[in-house]
Design goal:
single chain; about 230 residues; alpha+beta; Jelly Rolls; nine-stranded antiparallel sheet; five-stranded antiparallel sheet; 3 helices; about 40% strand; binds calcium ion
């Protein structure tokens, strides 16, 4: 009886939701929001570019880079104690992407977390037959998204991709995107775009919360003992 009651109480503890904590968001239209006492630095290749037409109403500016050698990196330091991280972002395959099997190919959109590549994606805007974007949601393909209207663009949303919800507890985090691949031409031929970056932490429960839960468990156990 006691064991069953304690297990029930433990199950109750397990379902108590951890309060998610936003530590960074940036839509490149407003100043970046930095929360939780963290410090954020955005650095690397590229710069702001306005989207066009109906996309401008929804996305405004994006960050665009056509450099194959230099990443664009968000460096977060002084993160509050946490057990997991969820990152959301919109990725744009800008201009004449040639997939992984077109010409010249492959062209890669690479994503790194703490300097480890966790995603490598591509799109066939101009040639090739493969569009790969992991667990992202397709926003639009072969559209005029950026100012270079000579080539069409494709856009995906990674905010629902489970790859970007992961265990993490270090006080620092780096998130980078970078173009790569032997077929990468860069310049006005191919560029990577990124927008709507959000970094959310799952905090470690505060000591007060643990004390409250322990007290609750003790009461439940006491009741079970009296009944037993
Ligand atoms: Ca934007
Ligand atoms: Ca374009
Ligand atoms: Ca190419």
């Amino acid at each position: 009886m006691l064991m069953r009651t304690v297990l029930a109480a433990a199950a109750l503890v397990a379902v108590l939701p951890a309060q998610a904590q936003l530590v960074y968001s940036n839509d490149f239209d407003n100043p970046a929001v930095v929360g939780g006492g963290a410090t954020a630095v955005w650095s690397g290749a590229g710069g702001l570019q306005a989207t066009i037409g109906t996309f401008n109403a929804a996305y405004g500016n994006i960050w665009r880079s056509d450099s194959a050698s230099q990443a664009v990196t968000l460096s977060l330091t002084n993160l509050p104690a946490h057990t997991a991280v969820t990152i959301g972002f919109t990725a744009a395959f800008l201009d004449s992407w040639d997939s992984s099997n077109g010409n010249p190919a492959p062209d890669w959109y690479e994503v790194y977390i703490d300097s480890v590549m966790v995603g490598q994606y591509t799109y066939n805007n101009a040639s090739g037959g493969i569009a790969s974007y992991g667990g992202a949601t397709l926003v639009a393909q072969y559209v005029q998204f950026d100012a270079n209207v000579f080539f069409t663009d494709s856009v995906v949303d990674f905010s629902t991709d489970p790859t970007y919800s992961f265990s993490h507890s270090a006080p620092t985090l780096t998130f980078s995107v970078k173009a790569g691949g032997a077929g990468w031409q860069g310049g006005l031929d191919e560029a990577i775009g990124i927008d709507n970056i959000r970094v959310v932490l799952t905090p470690v429960p505060e000591p007060g919360t643990w004390a409250l839960l322990a007290a609750g468990l003790a009461i439940v156990a006491g009741v079970a003992r009296r009944r037993g």
